[in-house]
């Protein structure tokens, strides 16, 4: 079934509350990242180092994964290989059933969202509780994340307060509680703390997998991640096969990139290095540690024009700086990964025929590639998908005809000059107070905004007047 980005984007543009929430992105993310980058010093050298680390892994991915498996196994972890999301879900369900699990607590994991793990566990009789504050709110609201780092960026504190009032049996006095962010956070903590203590299984993602030690590295800003991975007797970490890095030093380099690019922090509040199961005599740690390595389409990108996308460290900087994401938010993209990264990953993992509009959900301004910490050429990859659509004949007849007409004119400069002059005059005549309020056959450009009308001559006419060389060639 095809996703309808245009319809969802239109609804997002008309949602005034969402627009107010999205207006905070430049303040919360863009400016903080810029300050952190400036404070670091030679951030470009760090980006180059990060790109080299990721490319080194991708050029020999199978060998690094086998090295990781050997080291993780040697330290007591069990490594599982999942070709698809269904395989990953089956593995987690099998682990839960073998361990008699009735309650699982989860740290934020986009890969588990990709697999739709929660419904699979609940169908097997396992209660799942999201413990990241944003994900917990979304679970109460029965919604999906709209951002990979800040999942409830689309909500305000009043909406969160109303959800808590609906789901928590906590007395309310007056109306001030709806404004008390600290109080709402404390209330969520009080609700979640017993879940950590009662849970049989903790589920997390992994930002990186360290091949030399067999460790899963987890970066969080809330203590829930550490509680999920140490208190329950079973810990399951699920992540993509591309997340492996060769050494601890490489992981440290990428963490420096990740935290600055994601939240503008020099380091996040918690960086957990999870290695194997609990040692004899240790005071904490799981009795069982399972690591699930998910493919789900990733290996299919190796050796293709899209391989660079596997460098991604999931910082969210591309979406924070994308004018389209800033205007419509994450839910408009229709799947787990929004913004420029989603415009590439969703067609790759779900099929271009299911997300034909996403490669076009960008202005190609280049901001995403400028801020990407591992230098992924995101606009080039979106253009690749557009070219593939054209080569497959997946464009509408109207769009194909329009491009052919433009190409015919562009190859004939004299006719192009005449057509440009005529178009400028016609658009000028249609203007009202210098604005184009409606364009025939192109209403989508003016349905939601007015466009400035051309007021003078064409470029060729201006060039000819200034140089005296003539406007036609």
Automatic annotation (TrEMBL):
<keyword id="KW-0408">Iron</keyword>
<dbReference type="InterPro" id="IPR024185">
    <property type="entry name" value="FTHF_cligase-like_sf"/>
</dbReference>
<dbReference type="InterPro" id="IPR017900">
    <property type="entry name" value="4Fe4S_Fe_S_CS"/>
</dbReference>
<keyword id="KW-0249">Electron transport</keyword>
<dbReference type="InterPro" id="IPR017896">
    <property type="entry name" value="4Fe4S_Fe-S-bd"/>
</dbReference>
<keyword id="KW-0677">Repeat</keyword>
<dbReference type="Pfam" id="PF11870">
    <property type="entry name" value="LutB_C"/>
</dbReference>
<dbReference type="InterPro" id="IPR024569">
    <property type="entry name" value="LutB_C"/>
</dbReference>
<dbReference type="Pfam" id="PF13183">
    <property type="entry name" value="Fer4_8"/>
</dbReference>
<dbReference type="InterPro" id="IPR009051">
    <property type="entry name" value="Helical_ferredxn"/>
</dbReference>
<dbReference type="InterPro" id="IPR003741">
    <property type="entry name" value="LUD_dom"/>
</dbReference>
<feature type="domain" description="4Fe-4S ferredoxin-type">
    <location>
        <begin position="302"/>
        <end position="333"/>
    </location>
</feature>
<dbReference type="InterPro" id="IPR037171">
    <property type="entry name" value="NagB/RpiA_transferase-like"/>
</dbReference>
<keyword id="KW-0411">Iron-sulfur</keyword>
<protein>
    <submittedName>
        <fullName>LutB/LldF family L-lactate oxidation iron-sulfur protein</fullName>
    </submittedName>
</protein>
<keyword id="KW-0813">Transport</keyword>
<keyword id="KW-0004">4Fe-4S</keyword>
<keyword id="KW-0479">Metal-binding</keyword>
<dbReference type="Pfam" id="PF02589">
    <property type="entry name" value="LUD_dom"/>
</dbReference>
<dbReference type="InterPro" id="IPR004452">
    <property type="entry name" value="LutB/LldF"/>
</dbReference>
